[in-house]
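Subgroup meeting minutes
Present: P.N., E.W., G.H.
Scribe: E.W.

1. P.N. recapped why we're keeping a running log of single-chain structure predictions: easier to compare across weeks, and new members can see raw inputs and outputs side by side.
2. G.H. added today's entry (211 aa).
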Amino acid sequence: MKDSAKIDSIFSASRIIPVITIDAINDAIPMAEALVSGGLRVLEITLRTSCALQAIEEIAARVPDAIVGAGTIITKQDLDNVTNAGAVFAISPGATEALYDAAEDASIPFLPGISTASELMRGIERGYERFKFFPAEAAGGSPLLKSLAGPFSQAKFCPTGGITVANARDYLALPNVMGVGGSWMLPASSIKARDWGRLHELATQASHIHT
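Output recorded in log:
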């Protein structure tokens, strides 16, 4: 099915995906290096700030062990922009018909977002079997994903939204969860202080979460 093998390959490198919002471009490289050196190679840079595209470009060029992707993909233009910036995968919080159409011609794998069975069914109709589940905790959490496994055994998910060090293991224990996205390893206080050692420590702890 569409992009499944490519997405599975990405998640095989790390089942914990830091969801990163970069406010200052000078933080991009040291932040990425701290996460990658801690064992979290797959990075989702959200398109929530003005420097996000530049951050993707710089990390892709200067942190060779990072697998750099983009989150908060909402439009075709977003998809084009992150591809041109050097992202190797794209993740959306939801999925419109226009975005599915745009992804048909994309050169990088696309992970559409869903939060209901009906949205999941539409994604499957469009040829997908790998999805972002968002907002995970608010939409029903691990009990909902467990329930979806019955009628949709072919689908696998990356839940994001409310994932913490306390509940990540519960999600990862589900057979239909390929990985989780979260930002608990990126405390705002540490970023403000530019305490990259603390981020490295938290990334190392996260990389050792097992089911």
